[in-house]
């Protein structure tokens, strides 16, 4: 690191300075100058003497110069939202806003106003911005307060635009697209730099680290290579990233909320297939999301008419504004432009909303009231009780219970309330129930089934696979060359399955390597 009177090079800099990182602690002569450990993503103030040194090649001087600094002191900027200077007048406006009855409607109206509808998704995004309270227990363990959210939907439903808008509002955020991201780009990359004496390896912080205490928006999550996606698992649940690369062992903080967007497996939702089967993401990743919204694009004359009016109005406002700016002789007055723009403007100005979020996260740490606890407990226990029968699927897991708590805390923060009331618990229950109905329902039985989300296969599917495998192994004992497919399909009704369904299941088993064909049209189990 930088020690008094010693060169401080780009790649030997303390963690987070100049993008580089080392695992050694920084031994400074100046006491109390370093407040805490410096990690990538931190904003620091470095004090030192800047030097310029001419580089040389052999005996000849080069036209290139190296910049380096003699480090004297480093201070970690403790402020979470360093670019947020919230004045007293802003705080008064924020408090006034928070007391209004329709504050939630105003918040929803302030997210991507150019996109029509999606009130529930927009409300969830607002709650994600405010996030739940991160709990630090006396024994040193930590429960995350950040909400992770996934939007899966048909093309052209405005997912990317909503992501971009949230990235603009969030006080600290990073936006990245799945196709152009690697695991190193999301976590940290080990880079080699030959500045100074010998080659040095350093870590450069990736998107999830740079979004620390903010939002990481990842678009086109499904286009990312699956081994790159697996880099996110630890970052989402533990909120830290362990790196062991090029002789560097480090743990980086990634206390961010992830907002992801993806398309269904076949590009568009197929209404005849269960939604759980159409999501081309690993169950281990899906189960880490607190909320999963499916955005389908179905024709609806009334809704389409309103959508068309809204898009035309938004474009017209943009046309007027652009023409007034670019053409001095424009026949439109500023008043006309303002009138039209007002119809599609966010209800709360984006700059004020950023300050609102920053102020709430800084100063508001709500606690649960007994009523709120009772509401959430009742919903969870009631759902779980549906899985008490011997053959019933498990409707929800404890992960959903934590999601309910985080949503209720975020809802209280929107009002700048110090307590989580029953209305916040109701709001979080409504959102979670709506998400579960979209994605956590077994389409064959209509029951809630946590396995659809947690494992990607519903209980009835698992039972079917087990039954068809059992049938094949029974039949193959009767025939020397394996079980003839015709025979299996003929006897499928013994296990309550029609022939076409059985054929689909056999094909799936064949793909997974659970059954094979020793001879054409004959099956054996592995």
Q: Mind explaining what this structure looks like?
A:
- With 526 residues, the chain is α/β, with parallel strands linked by helices.
- The chain contains 19 helices and 19 strands.
- Strands 7-10-13-6-14 form a five-stranded parallel sheet. The protein has a three-stranded antiparallel sheet with strand order 1-3-2, with no helix packed on it. A three-stranded antiparallel sheet has the order 17-19-18.
- Helix 2 packs across helix 3 (119-130) and helix 14 crosses helix 15.
Helix content, binned percent: 25-40%
How far do the termini sit from each other? 58 Å
Largest sheet: 5 strands, parallel
Beta-strand segment tally? 19
Strand content: 15-25%
Chain oligomer state: single chain
Low-confidence stretches: 1-35
Q: What structural class is derived from the secondary structure elements? A: alpha/beta
**Cα radius of gyration in angstroms:** 28 Å
The strand line-up of the biggest sheet is 7-10-13-6-14
Summed over residues and divided by their number, the pLDDT gives a mean of: 77
Secondary structure tally, helices: 19
What is the overall shape? Answer: globular
Task: Give the structure's gist in a few sentences.
By secondary structure, the protein is α/β, with parallel strands linked by helices.
Task: Quickly list its features.
3-stranded antiparallel β-sheet; 5-stranded parallel β-sheet; single chain; alpha/beta; 19 helices; about 525 residues; about 20% strand
Topology:
Layout lengths: L6 E2 L35 E14 L2 E17 L11 H11 L4 H7 L9 H12 L4 E2 L5 E2 L5 E5 L5 H11 L3 E5 L5 H4 L1 E6 L6 E6 L1 H4 L4 E5 L6 H4 L2 H6 L2 E6 L2 E6 L3 E6 L20 H4 L4 E5 L5 H26 L7 H10 L6 H14 L3 E2 L1 H16 L12 H17 L4 E2 L1 H18 L10 H5 L4 H18 L6 E2 H6 L8 H14 L2 E2 L5 E4 L1
Parallel strand pairs: 6-13, 6-14, 7-10, 10-13, 15-16
Antiparallel strand pairs: 1-3, 2-3, 4-5, 8-9, 11-12, 17-19, 18-19
Helix pairs in contact: 2-3, 3-14, 10-11, 13-14, 13-15, 14-15, 17-19
